[in-house]
Every structure is written in structure tokens, then in C-alpha cells.
Amino acid sequence: MSAVREASSSATDATPATGSADAPVPRVVSGMVVRTRGGRLSLRVQGRALAVTVALLVTLIVVMGVSLTTGDFELSVTEVLRALAGNGSGGADFIVNTLRMPRLLTALCVGAALAVSGAILQSLTGNPLGSPDIIGFTNGSATGALVVIVMLHGSMTQIALGALIGGLATAALIYLLVFSGGMQGFRLIVIGVGVSALLLAVNSYLITRASWQEALEAQAWLIGSLGNRGWSHAAAVGVAVAVLLPLAFCFARRLSMVEMGDDTAMALGVDVARTRLVLLVISVALAAFATAVTGPIWFIALAAPQLARRLSHSPGPGLVPAAFMGAVLLAGSDLAVQRIFSPALLPVGTATGTIGGLYLIWLLVTESRKSRA
Questions:
Q1: Does a cis peptide bond (omega within 30 degrees of 0) precede residue 343?
Q2: For 210, which of 51, 178, 194, 220 is 20 to 30 Å away at the CA?
Q3: Which pLDDT score is estimated for 184?
Q4: How far apart are alpha carbons 87 and 11 in whole angstroms?
Q5: Would residue 316 be called left, alpha or beta, if left means φ above 0 and alpha means ψ between -120 and 50 degrees?
Q6: 5 has which bridge partners?
Q7: Residues 252/316, Cβ–Cβ less than 8 Å
């Protein structure tokens, strides 16, 4: 592949339509364009976004190293590498490959899935509050899981399947309600908040109808935890991420065009309705698979895309930096609750909920000041 640097940093993605009051504002795009020899494929690489992605990758490697080497039984990096290669001692092999590595991989995949899901929804709605937590997909997954726990008395596998079905069913309901009156970001947010509130009431009702043991099990699942996660959990969410993330990245360019407005996107050859539907399905599936494996882990989908976008100054959705940011936030939060609150078994959902709540307050205050300006 050959790299061609842009001739001018003042190139723009779109030109506002004449006389349009709400035409998209031109966005300055700089960086480098990488093309194949035939020119059939091209990719714009922004220097700051690349630097942020690399920094997040390095941070992620550090978090992984600390997670695998520290704890009640400390191991050296050499012992960890030997255990991963299958040449370690029995104790090191059990600690690394049975206890720590499945939990870590689950955290990485779930964090990346939630972050990309949130990035897609925020881009589609044009609103930083657009995330599976706010719109209701997460509560829908929780409803599906609670139905299995309280009414069907199912196993962990059946609970995960119920959460997946609940999330997808909620998305289908919101889709029908939103698209019956035309796709608008604000409309999607408002309807999603309403459906989320309704599902929260249903969840509370299901818990009140449960037995004492079922209520404890349901409440433990609703907090969101990475404890006792094995290779089956890591494999399930890993397969989902391996299939869905590449699809999301393939649609990232079209998503950037949709951000410019329907007219501009259609003028550039994008099938707007089809693109929105495909991206919405990808976003919902990512959130549903993540929630099915760990339970609801709040605010990763809300905060990670915004943090990545602010750091990288990306004019587009920035799905790749968002994925790394989500993985770093969840893996780092899980590491913190394990080490700071040890030996107490504190669920990671409590940490993300606390941090996310503070972030949400800051976001609402910031948006309020912008609206007054």
C-alpha cells in the first residue's frame, strides 16, 4: 500500500446546501490517505487519532500485565508467559489460564463491544446521550434475563440466552416505534428513554414476585460482574466481537457520511435507510451479547466513545479508538475493584456506575452550558 499525504489540511467532508438552515457544518479533515496499488481501497489515517489509539493500546497492555501478575498470588512476567505457552508450573497454569485470563479477555471483549455499540448510537442520533444504557437496550436484556431467572428458573446459559433475546426484542420494539414517524435522533432518544423506564418498572415487578433466593440471584446479575467468568463466557463474547466489530468498522465510513445529513449522504451514494438499519442491528447485537455475558455494566457505552473522540479530536465516529477506550476502562475498573477492595468481592458494575454517574453529571452540565451559549 502507498501513502499519499493530503495536499491541504483545509479539505472538507461536505459543503452545506444553499439556503438550508440546518445544513451540516463543513469539517476540516487532515491526515494521511493510505491506498492500495489499484486505488480500489483507501483509508484516511489521522495522526492524532493514530497516536491516541497507540497510547490506548500501550495502556491496555500495561493493564493486562498488571492483571495477570498481581493479586493474592503474585507471578512474574516470565511465569505468566510460560503458563500461557503451556510450560508453566501447575499452580501458575491454574492461576493464569483458569482464573485470570478468561476474566481479563471477557472484560476486554465486553468493554470493546459496549464502547462501539455506544459510538454507533451516538453517531446515529447525533447526541452524546445515545447509548444502550439510556435508550433501553440494556434494560431490555435485563428483562429477558429476569424472566428466565424468576419465571423459568433457568441455568446460566439460559439466562444469557434470555438476556440476548430481551435486548434484541427491545430493539425491535423501539425500531418500530421510531421509524413509524421517521428516523430522528431526538425521537430515538426520547422513545428509548420511555421504553427504558417501562422496562425498569417491569424488572422491579419481577424481582418482587421472586423468591428470596431468586431475588438475590437476580440482584447479583443486575449489578454486572466479571467474577467467576470462564472460557465459555470469554469464547461467547469473543466470537460475537470477532464477527460484529469488523462489520462495524466496514460501515464506519458510511456512518461518517450519515453524520453529515441525509441529503449529503445520499448525494455521496449512501443508502441511508439501509445503513442506519444495519448499524442499529450491529449496535444492538454488540450490547446484547455483552450484557448476556456479564449482566448490565453501566456507562461504558456512554463514556468511552466520548472520551475517545475528545482525545483524538476525530471528526467521525472513531470506532477503533472507542473500542480500545472501552476495553481499557472496563479492564482497568475491574483491576481496581479487585486490588483496592480486596478481599471483598466487589462487582465491577459498582465501579463503572460510580464513575459513569459522575461523567453523566458533567456531560449534562456541559451540554446545558452549550445550549445557553
A1: yes
A2: 194
A3: 64
A4: 54
A5: beta
A6: 32
A7: yes
Mean pLDDT computed over 243-254: 91
Q: How many residues does the chain have?
A: 373
Closest CA to 110 of 100, 99, 118: 118
Q: Is the pLDDT of residue 25 over 70?
A: no
Query: d(Cα 336, Cα 193) in Å, to the nearest integer?
Result: 31
Average pLDDT over residues 42-63: 84
Distance CA 363, CA 97 (A): 39
Residue with the bigger pLDDT between 262 and 198: it is 198
Which is nearest to 259 in space by CA: 60, 25, 58? Answer: 25
Query: What are the phi and psi torsion angles at 274 (to 5°)?
Result: -65, -40
Cα 297 to Cα 105, 108, 132, 225, 315: the distances in Å are 16, 13, 10, 8, 28
**For residue 122, what are the CA distances in angstroms to 134, 185, 194, 332?**
11, 9, 18, 23
3-state class (DSSP) for residue 245: helix
Determine how many CB atoms are found less than 10 A away from the CB of residue 280: 20
Which neighbouring-strand residues pair with 44? 33
